[in-house]
Amino acid sequence: MKKLLAMVCLISVLICFSACKEEKTDEESVFENISQGIIEGNVYENKFNGLGIELPGEWKFSSREEMDEMTASANELLRDDLKEQLSNANVVYDAMATVEKTGSSLAINMEKVTGYNEQGYLNAAMSDLGNALSGMGYSINSMDIVKTQIAGEEHFAIGIDGVTTDESKFSEMIICKQIGDCMVIITICMIGNADCGEVVRMFYAV
Fold first, then answer.
1. Contacts of 97 (CB under 8 A, 6+ apart)
2. What residue ranges of the chain have pLDDT lower than 70?
């Protein structure tokens, strides 16, 4: 379970970093320009990124402390070179929720970027993302850039299907929503036969 949660945390952070290796953004300026959301019970809303979601009862949002722990766990799963790169990434960790029984997870992160649209951002991250998953022992059956609807808008996403280290099926969707020079990254991982679309359809506009 811990490794599955770390995988989602890792992917959501790694994709932010991989697309913007050449950018050096001051961390304080990132937080000044990107507003974090509000979590009350099983409801997340963020007026800055325009997204809200009410998750079913089996889901639980993580505290800020728990998110920090999962980020540290994700870091331990990386090669030494990627550990150093990840430590330099400037990312706003906005929310993470999990289903304890299955390990299915949702993460919402944001990063200030320049020079990318959604599709270009995801293209830039594809290679590092595939290498990181393979390095963790996950088998990837397919990984493609697709379009999806979230909260009434169409955005680009990476869709992944594969098998975990314990032979469980998983599907992953990493959705980009661009707001000016901010890229919002919504990472959904469903374990077993569940469909990421189930979670995507729960999002609403705020």
1. 42, 44, 55, 59, 60, 61, 62, 105, 106
2. 1-33, 70-90
User: Helices 80-87 & 64-76, crossing angle to 10 degrees?
Assistant: 150
User: What sign for the dihedral angle of Cα 163, 90, 18, 185?
Assistant: positive
Whole-number Cα distances in Å, 101 to 7, 32, 62, 106:
16, 37, 15, 14
How many Å apart are CA 158 and CA 170, to the nearest integer? 14
Pairing of strands 139-150, 153-163: antiparallel
Burial 61-86 (b: 16+ CB within 10 A, else e): bbeeeebeebbebbbebbeeebeebb
Q: Residue 9's closest CA among 144, 192, 136?
A: 136
Distance CA 72, CA 7 (A): 11
Report the distance separating Cα 137 and Cα 9, nearest Å. 16
SS3 content of the chain, % helix, strand, coil (to 5): 35, 35, 30
Q: What is the pLDDT of residue 132?
A: 75
| Predicted local distance difference test score (pLDDT) of residue 80 | 63
Q: DSSP labels for 59-80?
A: EEEPPHHHHHHHHHHHHHTS-H
Pairing status of strand 139-150 against strand 38-40: unpaired
Q: At what angle do helices 2-19 and 118-135 cross, to 10 degrees?
A: 140
